[in-house]
Amino acid sequence: MGGCSAWTPDPVSTRSARLRAVHRLGVLALASLGGAVIGLMGSFTHQSLPPVGLAIALVTVGLYAAGLRVWGDDRGPALAGAFGVSAVTLGLSSPGAGGSVVIPGNLLGYGWSFGLMLVALLILAWPRVQRPPRREAGSIEEPPSEEKDPTAP
Q: pTM of the predicted model, to two decimals?
């Protein structure tokens, strides 16, 4: 059966894969931290002006999650951001040491708690939009198409 040769991975590709994984974890951690900040702000402001404060807080969550969804190559950053918002909201709706809660069990509190989950779910479930191919900078030529119309000039 011949000699047994051990396969060794390419050190450059291993390092590159490790850097990509660290980058991905960093992006997910920052998205979650940003979501936590937005969740903290929304939790304190949703009761400020009864219907308007809740609407502003939910729109802010929606814009943040949509921005992460468009920016990221996949749903990971948007999911991490939604997790950050939800985790802070869950923590602030639980009774603290003195028995006080930031998010009370009233209509606005339930609207904030369940509304942010609905907004995040809607954005995460939205299908991926296919982007058209980009043209090279300075090029005025059309991108190559699969079939050319024979009647076109």
A: 0.74
